[in-house]
């Protein structure tokens, strides 16, 4: 896709600082890092979001994810790490090529807060079962 910035990074027409590459995926440093070591991992095939990934593409991408995470852990010794992936503008996606963020966390002063309020479900056990069945009926075998 010629207008996609990440596709241009893969083809080399836009520079990047590469961390990892194989025939299926490309990992590079985020140019606007949230923390030191912030890396993006993308499939080489243009896919807008997780809904568009094939199972093989997802498998290839997530086979590399632990390698990236372990390399970041070894190099920077973070106290934690967030893996973040947004789908759609409402969810915060700004580049519409699937990408997985690796965000090393160093302490509570890093300015990042991914916490959300949890509350007791207003749904009963029967409703939760019905929702699960509805989801299951839509799973592609």
From TrEMBL:
Question: Which Pfam families does the entry link to?
Answer: HIT
- Which top EC class is given? hydrolase
What EC number(s) are associated with this protein in UniProt?
3.-.-.-
According to UniProt, the name of this protein is HIT-like protein
Task: List the SUPFAM superfamilies hit by this protein, alphabetically.
Answer: HIT-like
Matching InterPro entries, A to Z? HINT, Histidine_triad_CS, Histidine_triad_HIT, HIT-like, HIT-like_sf
Q: Which Gene3D superfamilies does the protein's record reference?
A: HIT-like
Name the CDD domains on file.
HINT_subgroup
Task: Name the GO terms of the biological process aspect.
Answer: nucleotide metabolic process
Hydrolase recorded as keyword: yes
